[in-house]
Amino acid sequence: MSAVATVAPPTARPLAVANWLLALCGLILLMVIVGGITRLTESGLSITEWKPITGAIPPLTEAHWLREFELYKRIPEYQQINRGMSLAEFKNIFFWEWAHRQLGRVIGLVALLPLAWFWFRKAIPDGYRLRTASIFVLVCIQGAIGWWMVASGLTQRTDVSHLRLAVHLLTALFIFAFCLWTALDLRSPGAERRRMPTIAIWAFAVLFLQLLFGAYVAGLDAGYAFNTWPLMGDELYPSAAPWLEPLLRNFVDNPITVQFIHRWLAFGVLAMAILLAVRVRRDGGRRESLFLHIVVGLQILLGIATLLSGVHLHVAVTHQAMAVLVVAAFVAAAHRLALGQGRTADPSIDLRSAVAAE
C-alpha cells in the first residue's frame, strides 16, 4: 500500500497548511536565486560576523559602514584578491550577502509563525504535526549551515569550502522537496501520506549525484575550466589535465574532472526522468510527465549555455534556479505516481471518496 491514512480533527485545515508550505517553496526558490547571485558576484564573505537578530539591520551611518569594511579587510579574500577595493564597491557586495541573510530570516519567520498558529488552532491534520515541526527545525539548521559555510572562508581560504557549499545547497533543495511533497500529500484525497515509489527513489538518487557535482562545480569555479561543448577543448577529456593524489580526490577537488562528470551525468538524469515520465504518464499524469520533460531538457540546454557563455551571470543564475524546478518536477511526478499506485493498491480510498461526494 502506498498511502498511510490520517485522521483529521474537526478543525483541521489541510489545504491552508499545504498553501503555507507552497509559499515556503516559493521563498526557497527565491533564496536559491539570491544565493546564486551572491556566489557569482563573490559577495558571500562580505559580512564576517553572524548576528541572526541584530544583523537584520544594515549599516546606517558612515561609521557603521567603515567598521564593516575594516572587518572585511582582515580576511584573506580582501588581502589577496580585493586589496584596494573602494567603500562603494564593498557596499555592492555587502548588499547581496545581506539580502541573502535577510531572506533567510524571512523564511525562518514564515516557517515558524504560521506553524505556531496552525498548531494552536489544531489545524494540522493528525500525522503531519511532527513533519511540519521538523520543517522549521530544518530551516534553523540550514541557517547554521550557512554560517558554517561562510566561516570556512574567513581565516585561511579566499573562498568558502566547496564541500560546505554543497551541504548548504543540497540541504536547501531537500527542504524544498520535503515541503512540496508534504503539501501535495495534504492536497491529495483524504490528506493521505504517500510513500515514494521505488523507481522514483532511484531517479532521485541519480538527481542527488548531479546536484552534488553541480554544487562542486559552483564551489570550485569549475565552470570556467572549459567553455566548449561537447568537447573539453579538442578532447572528450583533456589528456594534459593534472591529476590529484590519491585518485579519489579528483572526483571532489579537481575542477576539470568535476566539470566532466557534471556534463555527462546530466544525461543520466535525463534517462531517469524519461523512465519516470513514462511511468507517470501511464498512470494518467500527463501534466507531470510533460513538466518533467520540459524542465530537464531546459536545464541541460541552460547548462550548455552557461559553459559557452563563460558562466555569464544571468545564464548561470537561471541554471541554478532551474535546478529547483527540476527537483519540483521530480517530486510532482513521483507523487503523482504514488497517488496512482495508492488508488490501485487500496480501492477503498476511491470508495471513501465516492461516499463523501454523496
Automatic annotation (TrEMBL):
<keyword id="KW-0350">Heme biosynthesis</keyword>
<keyword id="KW-0408">Iron</keyword>
<comment type="similarity">
    <text>Belongs to the COX15/CtaA family. Type 2 subfamily.</text>
</comment>
<comment type="function">
    <text>Catalyzes the conversion of heme O to heme A by two successive hydroxylations of the methyl group at C8. The first hydroxylation forms heme I, the second hydroxylation results in an unstable dihydroxymethyl group, which spontaneously dehydrates, resulting in the formyl group of heme A.</text>
</comment>
<feature type="transmembrane region" description="Helical">
    <location>
        <begin position="102"/>
        <end position="120"/>
    </location>
</feature>
<keyword id="KW-1133">Transmembrane helix</keyword>
<feature type="transmembrane region" description="Helical">
    <location>
        <begin position="290"/>
        <end position="315"/>
    </location>
</feature>
<feature type="transmembrane region" description="Helical">
    <location>
        <begin position="163"/>
        <end position="184"/>
    </location>
</feature>
<feature type="transmembrane region" description="Helical">
    <location>
        <begin position="132"/>
        <end position="151"/>
    </location>
</feature>
<keyword id="KW-0472">Membrane</keyword>
<dbReference type="Pfam" id="PF02628">
    <property type="entry name" value="COX15-CtaA"/>
</dbReference>
<feature type="transmembrane region" description="Helical">
    <location>
        <begin position="196"/>
        <end position="218"/>
    </location>
</feature>
<comment type="subunit">
    <text>Interacts with CtaB.</text>
</comment>
<keyword id="KW-1003">Cell membrane</keyword>
<protein>
    <recommendedName>
        <fullName>Heme A synthase</fullName>
        <ecNumber>1.17.99.9</ecNumber>
    </recommendedName>
</protein>
<keyword id="KW-0479">Metal-binding</keyword>
<feature type="transmembrane region" description="Helical">
    <location>
        <begin position="321"/>
        <end position="339"/>
    </location>
</feature>
<comment type="pathway">
    <text>Porphyrin-containing compound metabolism; heme A biosynthesis; heme A from heme O: step 1/1.</text>
</comment>
<feature type="transmembrane region" description="Helical">
    <location>
        <begin position="20"/>
        <end position="40"/>
    </location>
</feature>
<feature type="transmembrane region" description="Helical">
    <location>
        <begin position="260"/>
        <end position="278"/>
    </location>
</feature>
<dbReference type="InterPro" id="IPR023754">
    <property type="entry name" value="HemeA_Synthase_type2"/>
</dbReference>
<dbReference type="InterPro" id="IPR003780">
    <property type="entry name" value="COX15/CtaA_fam"/>
</dbReference>
<keyword id="KW-0560">Oxidoreductase</keyword>
<keyword id="KW-0812">Transmembrane</keyword>
<feature type="binding site" description="axial binding residue">
    <location>
        <position position="319"/>
    </location>
    <ligand>
        <name>heme</name>
    </ligand>
</feature>
<feature type="binding site" description="axial binding residue">
    <location>
        <position position="262"/>
    </location>
    <ligand>
        <name>heme</name>
    </ligand>
</feature>
